[in-house]
Amino acid sequence: MESLIRNIADTARWVAIFRAEESERPDAVFRDPYARILAGERGEQIANTIEFGKKNSWSFVARTFLFDEFIRQHVEQRYDMIINLASGLDTRPYRMNLPSSLKWIEVDLPEMISYKETILAGEKPNCLLQKVQMDLSDRKARLELFNQLGNKSDNALIVAEGLIGYLDNEEVGTLAKDLSEQKSFKRWVFDLMSPGLLTMVQKEMGSFLKEANAPLQFAPEEGEDFFLPYGWKHLESKSKLKTAAVLKRLSDEMMAYAAYPEPEGPRGSFPWTGACLFENIN
Predict the structure, then answer these.
(1) How many CB atoms lie within 10 A of CB 50?
(2) Domain-by-domain residue ranges, the chain?
(3) Residue of 76, 90, 218 lying closest to 157 (CA atoms)
(4) Which of 60, 71, 131, 132 has a 20 to 30 A CA-CA distance from 258?
């Protein structure tokens, strides 16, 4: 199929469909009233075509739920800034109950920021929202931004939902180092996958993502320990599969898989993915 996913922005539209479908359930575990219009026809077309993603939509529901919970916890702990890297079509500043004094920083490519601004032009965020148009691969620019934000916060939570899987090991290590050098960047939450799951996803969806020049590639053999040399201590990881089981979003077949214990530490060939929380130790 020609250019089903044209670029990284289309992956954001694709995932937004699964948020929309969850939001429209009577027993929804979160509600994103903007997801369907942000996804558009393009997002729906992608979601309906990639069978593996549709079959495993529970993983995107669990991811959104887990990130919501981590953010809520840190807001309750009086973190004063949320920095959302590669924010995509996230609408948490609009849909979550947040303190009006909370500083929320969205960082993403200019075209993504502009697209979302156009769709949400008539909406008002619940906190102090700042949008930064930036290519995060530009290290000089991001270092300048991190320095600016680091001086404007006492306790910041870094959010990187659906980002680092698209980077290689060197890129992830450099980003981790750059973030840890800011003393006020206290915590970092992102999603991680095992080498076993990466192999499975590459087999099922790799051709679509390579076509968009957005291949998934980061799944370190060391697991969470990968980040320790770069200044980040692992605090906890929440399995998407186990979370989806608790939320009752799995098929009977997947519920049977979820009943098995998952390995801790490096998971190797075991197909695992979860949301991981880290603490800055620099």
Answers:
(1) 19
(2) 8-280
(3) 76
(4) 71
Answer yes or no: is pLDDT of 264 > 90.
no
Q: Is 274 helix (H, G, I), strand (E, B) or coil?
A: strand
Encoded tokens for 203: 């087999």
DSSP 3-state of 87: coil
- For the beta sheet containing 103-108, the strands, ordered from the edge strand earlier in sequence to the opposite edge, are 128-133, 103-108, 81-85, 156-160, 185-193, 273-280, 232-239
What is the model's pLDDT at position 205?
A: 82
Give the number of other CB atoms < 10 A from CB of residue 270.
13
Q: What would the pLDDT profile of 41-54 be if each residue is shown by its tens digit?
A: 999 999 998 888 89
- Using a 10 angstrom Cβ sphere, with 0-12 exposed, 13-18 middle and 19 or more buried, the burial of residue 256 is exposed
d(CA 195, CA 174): 20
Q: Give the number of residues written for the chain.
A: 282
pLDDT at 5: 76
Distance between CA atoms of 172 and 282, rounded to whole angstroms? Answer: 17
How far apart CA 280 and CA 257 sit, in angstroms, is 34
> Amino acid letter at 206?
G
Q: Which residue has the higher pLDDT, 6 or 248?
A: 248
* Residue 41, both tokens: 């026809």
DSSP 191: E
The model's pTM: 0.96
The domain defined by 8-280 folds into Rossmann fold (3.40.50)
Q: Specify whether the CB–CB gap between 13 and 38 falls below 8 A.
A: yes
The answer for 218, left when phi > 0, alpha when psi is -120 to 50, beta otherwise, is beta
Tell me the pLDDT tens digit for each residue of 127-139: 999 999 999 999 9
